[in-house]
Amino acid sequence: PLSKRESEVLQSLSQGLTREEIAADHFISVNTVKSVIRSIYNKLDANNRADAVSIAIAHGYIEGHNIQL
């Protein structure tokens, strides 16, 4: 399962936000965003943003509306 922070970042990724935009929205550093994204990819066994979002939707971690990749 994903942590609350991972779920939030993944939702932002699914909306097409950049790492910089995600960092600003969540009041964290870009390096923290990168670390969280790596963790998401590892937990979901994903290779990229689109893969992670697709897997997350399939497993119910995020909802599939308003997706912008």
Short description:
By secondary structure, the chain is mainly α. It contains four helices and no strands. Helices cover about 65% and strands about 0% of the residues.
Describe the protein.
The chain is mainly α and 69 residues long. Helices cover 64% and strands 0% of the residues. Helix 1 crosses helix 3, helix 1 (4-14) crosses helix 4 and helix 2 (19-26) packs across helix 3 (30-44). It is globular, with a radius of gyration of 11 Å. The model has no long low-confidence stretch (mean pLDDT 92).
Distance between the termini: 23 Å
Number of strands: 0
Overall 3D geometry? globular
Strand content: under 5%
What's the total helix number?
Answer: 4
The biggest sheet amounts to:
none
Mean pLDDT: 92
Please describe the structure with a list of short key phrases separated by commas or semicolons.
mainly alpha, single chain, 0% strand, 69 residues
Tell me the layout of helices and strands.
Elements: H1 4-14, H2 19-26, H3 30-44, H4 49-58
